[in-house]
């Protein structure tokens, strides 16, 4: 009994969602019901039928038209209400007929039965039309391969949820998920295998997620999950649990030779505590995802705003400069999408090295700032140079090599932070003295600049850039070791690789 009741409630909820999805529709339905009831009451009044059968016939035709219109507008919901009204009047007509045996009552009864047939036919057509409409709407927002929502729906639902969060003072969280080494599976096993991995991944994520979460296919091998009202302190824990559940369930979905290989990298952020709008939320989650992949893949990373961390530690005299730096980084981002995220990642790698070398908290903070701001001088660079896919010519390269000097000039107002400007100016100096802009050598280069050189080069190697494809982390480590003593400080290379392997373990 309880199951049947639950089924009826679900059916009613579905019908209501289909036909009564706004206030105007509700008022329209109530108006049809009210008119039908009034007409029915007038027809059923105990008056002389012989004197009023023409009026009652006219009212009956009007009422039939209304219930047919109700079935046309509201499908099975309209039909259900119409049947209740018509059957109630039919019972009254039958009772009255056996009392008076008036032939006009038989005509009225026939009209009621005909109305039921026509109303049922109209309701079926309307319901089929609604089903077809829903299918078309679903196709418009669904990814054909995986069954997840598509990117069009992703942007729609994210905007909608942020609007709701603004009104209710709540939050919206975004998780970006990337299938690690997906291109390799396509190349080795073929595109059919790649498609199967995508479909299985979507199926697993759909099984894990609770109601109210929206799973979207954001790109080729990238998925996005939008959900509301999660506590910011629990975001990383939730993402880690999602990854663990994926590891548990993938044995059921993937073939044996792929089961242990397929892993996920996850980046996440939140609105409004971490981001200010939709675009910033997407950027932050995507940046966090990128960082998770660069940390060795199969990782979860929560976005951290390096500028906010700087704001907490920098002196009050320089607080107003943070807004300027943020504006400059945004300007760079508009010119070159790669640079902003690159600066944040370099800052994180540099801090990792500095902590592993057990430097003082003050020194680590300055290195963190320098990592974030080391490429700020690129704001002076023309967009066509920053985004050029071909190799730069000598003149363009000479121009690009001035960006550390431009960065130093922009940061010069921080006059009491000489180490910061030094690190920024010299992060492209090489250990053998062949770097720029000053050709410094060995320990002539400050420790912070040598740390930045390793962090900057590593991120450049493992990142996709306009003019080069990314390396694997292992390949990048090999390149660092190969160039230790020429481009890089050998000791810093050892410390960095050890720290990264420990972090990735």
From TrEMBL:
Residues 170-305 form the GGDEF domain. It comes from the Bacteria. It holds the Pfam family HD_5. Keywords: Coiled coil, Membrane, Transmembrane, Transmembrane helix. Residues 339-461 form the HD domain. InterPro entries: GGDEF_dom, HD/PDEase_dom, HD_domain, HD_GYP_dom, Nucleotide_cyclase, Rev_trsase/Diguanyl_cyclase. This is Diguanylate cyclase. It comes from Acetivibrio mesophilus. The lineage of its organism: Bacteria, Bacillati, Bacillota, Clostridia, Eubacteriales.
């Amino acid at each position: 009994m309880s199951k049947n009741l639950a089924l009826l409630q679900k059916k009613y909820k579905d019908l209501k969602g289909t036909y009564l999805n706004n206030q105007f529709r509700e008022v329209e339905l109530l108006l049809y019901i009210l008119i039908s009831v009034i007409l029915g009451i007038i027809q059923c009044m105990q008056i002389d039928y012989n004197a009023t059968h023409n009026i009652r016939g006219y009212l009956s035709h009007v009422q039939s038209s209304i219930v047919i219109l109700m079935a046309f507008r509201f499908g099975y919901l309209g039909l259900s209400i119409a049947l209740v009204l018509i059957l109630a009047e039919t019972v009254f007509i039958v009772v009255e007929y056996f009392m008076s045996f008036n032939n006009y009552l038989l005509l009225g009864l026939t009209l009621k039965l005909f109305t039921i047939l026509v109303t049922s036919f109209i309701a079926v057509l309307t319901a089929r039309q609604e089903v077809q409409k829903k299918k078309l709407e679903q196709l418009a927002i669904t990814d054909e391969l995986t069954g997840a929502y598509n990117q069009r729906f992703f942007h729609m639902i994210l905007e909608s949820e942020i609007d709701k969060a603004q009104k209710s003072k709540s939050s919206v969280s975004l998780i970006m998920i990337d299938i690690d080494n997906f291109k390799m599976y396509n190349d080795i096993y073929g595109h059919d295998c790649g498609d199967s991995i995508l479909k299985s991944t979507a199926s697993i994520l759909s099984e894990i997620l609770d109601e109210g979460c929206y799973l979207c296919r954001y790109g080729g091998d990238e998925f996005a999950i939008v959900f509301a009202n999660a506590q910011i302190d629990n975001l990383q824990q939730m993402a880690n649990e999602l990854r663990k559940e994926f590891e548990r369930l993938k044995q059921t979905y993937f073939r044996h030779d792929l089961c242990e290989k397929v892993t996920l990298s996850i980046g996440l952020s939140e609105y409004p505590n971490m981001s200010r709008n939709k675009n910033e939320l997407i950027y932050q989650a995507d940046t966090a995802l990128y960082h998770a992949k660069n940390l060795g893949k199969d990782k979860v990373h929560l976005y951290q705003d390096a500028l906010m961390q700087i704001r907490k530690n920098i002196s009050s005299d320089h607080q107003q400069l943070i807004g300027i730096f943020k504006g400059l980084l945004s300007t760079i981002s508009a010119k070159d999408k790669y640079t902003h995220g690159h600066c944040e990642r370099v800052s994180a790698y540099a801090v990792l090295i500095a902590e592993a070398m057990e430097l003082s908290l003050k020194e680590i903070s300055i290195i963190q700032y320098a990592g974030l701001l080391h490429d700020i001088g690129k704001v002076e660079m023309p967009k066509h140079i920053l985004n050029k896919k071909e190799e730069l010519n000598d003149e363009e390269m000479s121009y690009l090599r001035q960006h550390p000097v431009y960065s130093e000039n922009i940061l010069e107002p921080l006059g009491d932070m000489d180490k910061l400007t030094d690190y920024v100016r010299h992060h492209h100096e090489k250990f053998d003295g062949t770097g720029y802009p000053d050709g410094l050598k060995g320990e002539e280069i400050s420790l912070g600049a040598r740390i930045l050189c390793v962090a900057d080069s590593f991120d450049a190697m493992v990142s996709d850039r306009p003019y080069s494809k990314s390396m694997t982390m292992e390949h990048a480590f090999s390149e660092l070791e190969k160039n230790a003593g020429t481009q890089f400080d050998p000791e810093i290379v050892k410390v960095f690789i050890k720290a990264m392997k420990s972090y990735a373990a």
